[in-house]
Amino acid sequence: MTNKVLVEANQLKMYFPIKSGIIKRTVGHVKAVDDVSLKVYEGESLGIVGESGSGKSTLGRMLLRLLEPTSGEVFFDGDNLSALPKRQVRPYRRDMQMVFQDPYASLNPRMSIGDLLEEPMLVHQTVRDRGERRRKAEELLEIVGLPMQSYNKYPHEFSGGQRQRVGIARALSTNPRFIIGDEPVSALDVSIQSQVLNLMKDLQKQFHLTYVFIAHDLSVVKHISDRVAVMYLGRVVEIARKKDMYHKPLHPYSEALIGAVPSTDVTKKRKRVVLEGELPSPASPPKGCAFRTRCPHAHARCKEERPEMVEVNPEHFAACHLYTNEDGSLKRGVGVV
Ligand code: SF4
Q1: Can you tell me which residues the record assigns to a coiled coil (predicted)?
Q2: What is the pLDDT of residues 206-260, one digit of tens each?
């Protein structure tokens, strides 16, 4: 990981309109992502975690401009992609790829593995020569640990784990710098998950990749991330280096998520915080702090004022009134590690 910012989200919002009646009038909005700003440093792996409905996949798609944000900006290597017409974003697409959650749905069943791997090279015109494309596809198969004969086979002839290896090879086929893994192992058997995660870790080193790794499972993110961001109802509520997040979470929601991860160290007992209630609807999030309906520390201020993200400890940010005074300054004693 370097100090160079490769990808930056600036106040990203994605509001989906709720339509009603015969004339489909807009009666409200689902705030899937609500004012998210974050930086991804070159060479790092940033884990993004949250329950389903927290907005993490929508955020991932906006970072790749697969979804147009309602407002906000995305920068890639210093260039403002949001200011560019779609046509001009195309050259950036080869640098930014995605590995999808469902290796069954994301691969066209009528295309051979060879065609699936060569298609992005054709679309982005990264390899124009046919023979060269085939050589590269075979090389990719080897890199992801699949036999060369896979080239002429079809997706249905492979297991889930093997299909996800094809998905990873396809993402690598344009020599990207940045890959988003959108729950890339959650559809796989637990026994296969660590093999795919280890492969992704090795590839990151080998090809100097930068990752955003989206998951609902903190134990998966722990395996692969350098930093972790926790999302709740469309907002990032905490972001920190992995060790700080797992050993000293600041936000009550992160604390609850981490408390639910089984510890492999029997000498360390984790404080369990039981989350009460369901995730509220993003169409009508609670006023003030969106987590207040489930938070064991909720108090009067939480009902009135939405907490802003503050740097509580070095490189450890949280959005929670437990750490700030009403004027926004850090509380006495907070900020000492
Ligand atoms: Fe809990 Fe209040 Fe902090 Fe929200 S701001 S997490 S309700 S203590």
Answers
A1: none
A2: 999 999 999 988 888 888 999 999 999 999 999 999 999 999 999 999 999 988 7
**pLDDT digits over 140-158, tens only?**
999 999 999 999 999 999 9
Three-state SS at 5: strand
N-term to C-term CA, the chain: 23
Ligand 1 atom nearest to 299, measured from its CA = 2
Residue 74 lies in a domain: yes
Residue 91 structural domain = 5-233
Is 39 a domain residue? yes
- Regarding the beta carbon of 321 and ligand 1, being less than 6 Å apart is answered yes
pLDDT of residue 278: 81
As given in the structure block, the two tokens for residue 253 are 């929601």
Alpha carbon distance 321, 124 (integer Å): 48
Q: Which of 302, 306, 317 to mutate to test the pocket of ligand 1 (most atoms within 8 A of CB)?
A: 302
With a cut of 70, list the residues of the chain below it in pLDDT.
262-274, 335-337
Instruction: Indicate the number of domains in the chain.
Output: 1
* Chain center to CA of 312: 23
- CATH code, domain carrying 79: 3.40.50.300
294 lies in some domain? no
